[in-house]
TrEMBL record:
Belongs to the SIS family. GutQ/KpsF subfamily. The keyword Metal-binding applies. Keywords: CBS domain, Metal-binding, Repeat, Zinc. Residues 200-258, 267-323 form the CBS domain. The lineage of its organism: Bacteria, Pseudomonadati, Thermodesulfobacteriota, Desulfobulbia, Desulfobulbales. This is KpsF/GutQ family protein. It comes from Desulfocapsa sulfexigens (strain DSM 10523 / SB164P1). Signal peptide: none annotated. The keyword Zinc applies. PROSITE patterns: CBS, SIS. CDD domains: CBS_pair_SIS_assoc, SIS_Kpsf. Residues 31-174 form the SIS domain.
């Protein structure tokens, strides 16, 4: 019973995210441009659950190259408003758009000429009408059966904040080394300081097959090592190509006979490779630039030395490619 209820909650959350995704329009572009043009900082404000989500959005913006801070609406009305400059951009968060404390703050913000971007599900709300740009986070329903506790709406708000941060990251050409500089004390920063040889897989842990085998045979190795790719090599261990999970899925969808087709027909020839002395941070930049998760490590003659996977480099869940 509990499992089914949990699945129902997650399904409602998914529906909320889908609705927000489909609702993204030109206002999102306007918000991105307004923030990029901002000469100072992005101020996030909200109260209650929206405030908690706002704090996380502010932290994400800071770590990905967009200076930001969180401002509590009540504290703002008691002196902290002095932290906001006319040149700042304020992102005001309220799902209903009718939060009294937040809307009271908007009056003072507008007087000083601060740009206001609303994140709200209330398209005709007081917040929406007072804002320059409105990011619509309206969802079909909350996961709370009483419709009282913010659940799917806070998930949607957080996701919209992540979308903003990632798009801004890309527009600002924010690199992995910049991320490391913002996280000097973290485990991610430590991992990125080392050479590739310290984090790569080598020996029998490297999924590889000779160029003459069938795709079906390569899939056996692909499944066994579970890295998402298999390297194609010749008798001298020279890396000739790579086959990924995606290549196999596309081949199956196209009706390719995996038992009779050789890997050479399916592989990506001459894949991007790196040397083992390269710094991990530079390898990550290459992965980010080409949107790949696997890098073969080769020697002077192109021979296979090892393989680098994104998870071994960063740890699961600490980095996401742009979409």
């Amino acid at each position: 019973m509990s499992i089914e209820e949990a699945r129902e909650v997650l399904a409602i959350e998914e529906q909320g995210l889908a609705a927000v995704r489909e609702g993204i329009g030109e206002e999102f572009n306007q918000a991105v441009e307004r923030i990029l043009e901002c000469p100072s900082r992005v101020v996030i404000t909200g109260i209650g659950k929206s405030g908690i989500i706002g704090q996380k959005i502010s932290a994400t913006l800071n770590s990905t190259g967009t200076p930001s801070f969180f401002l509590h609406p009540v504290e703002a009305m008691h002196g902290d408003l002095g932290m906001v400059a006319a040149s700042d951009v304020v992102i005001a968060i309220s799902y209903s758009g009718e939060t009294t404390e937040l809307n009271a703050l908007l009056v003072s913000l507008k007087k000083r000429g601060t740009s206001i971007i609303a994140m709200t599900g209330g398209r005709e709300s007081t917040l929406a009408r007072a804002s320059d740009i409105v990011l619509d986070i309206q969802i079909p329903m909350e996961a709370c059966p009483l419709g009282l506790a913010p659940t799917a709406s806070t998930t949607a708000t957080l996701a919209m904040g992540d979308a903003l941060a990632v798009v801004l990251l890309r527009r600002n050409r924010f690199k992995a080394e910049d991320f490391r500089e913002n996280h000097p004390g973290g485990s991610l920063g430590e991992r990125l300081k080392v050479s590739v040889s310290k984090v790569m897989l080598k020996g029998e842990a490297v999924p590889s097959v000779l160029s003459g085998v069938t795709v079906a045979e390569s899939v056996i190795v692909l499944n066994r090592e579970n890295l998402g790719a298999v390297l194609i090599i010749d008798e001298k261990l020279k890396v000739l190509g790579i086959i990924t999970d995606g290549d196999v899925r596309r081949a199956v969808a196209e009706g390719v006979d995996l038992k009779n087709v050789r890997v050479g027909k399916l592989m990506t020839a001459s894949p991007i490779t790196i040397r083992e002395k390269m710094q991990a941070v530079d390898a990550l930049s290459i992965m980010q630039q080409h949107e790949i998760t696997i890098l073969p490590i080769v020697g002077d003659q192109g021979e296979m030395i090892g393989i680098l996977h994104l998870h071994d480099l960063l740890g699961k869940g600490e980095f996401r490619f742009l979409v």
